[in-house]
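FYI - complex with NAP, inputs then prediction.
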Amino acid sequence: MLGFIGGTGPEGMGLAARFALTGELVLIGSRSPDRAAEAVARLRAMLPEAQVDGGRNEEVAARAEVVFLTIPYDGQLELLPKLARATAGKIVVSTVSALKVEKGRVFARPVPRTVFTEVPGVRVLVEGEGLRWLLEVTSELAPLVRTLARFPVCDLEVVRPSLAEVFRRGTVVV
Ligand SMILES: NC(=O)c1ccc[n+]([C@@H]2O[C@H](COP(=O)([O-])OP(=O)(O)OC[C@H]3O[C@@H](n4cnc5c(N)ncnc54)[C@H](OP(=O)(O)O)[C@@H]3O)[C@@H](O)[C@H]2O)c1
């Protein structure tokens, strides 16, 4: 039994339809039971033989054996904690991509400057047009790393301070 969280969009519907064609029971999840029911009806109309059901994302996550995340990147922070208990111990497949598509062009999502200003002990030394940052970190790294975990960081380089700087500061390059 395969569940599709946010399965009402093109990615979830496309995957669910293909799995349904192989005989799998697919469950379409949504924040709204009405939208889930509409999507289920569309799939049934398209594939009359398919085994399809649906409901709220939380219900689908609880019923499914394997859970596919097919929601936009920005929706994860709010939705995923609500699914933690229902998905514990299950295989969770994320199709979520952090890329933003606008008018056919694909962009990486920059980390907003406010992210760094909200972490104590972090100072921006070089602002790299949102993509590459040089930061001075004079506190534990853990709060910064936890904050950055909300964003699609592809590289994190920690540069140890020189002996002369040891008692003054550490520097981290993002
Ligand atoms: N489409 C593709 O070809 C493709 C290919 C590769 C990867 N992906 C990735 O797959 C994911 C889904 O793509 P998609 O094109 O299907 O996306 P989408 O149409 O924008 O969203 C899919 C579903 O997610 C739910 N949703 C929207 N905003 C949400 C929010 N803030 N919080 C929780 N749920 C929300 C909506 O369902 P309800 O309103 O019914 O809850 C929506 O129908 C994305 O991360 C995308 O980057 C897509």
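The domain at 2-96 is CATH 3.40.50.720 (Rossmann fold). The chain has a mean pLDDT of 88.
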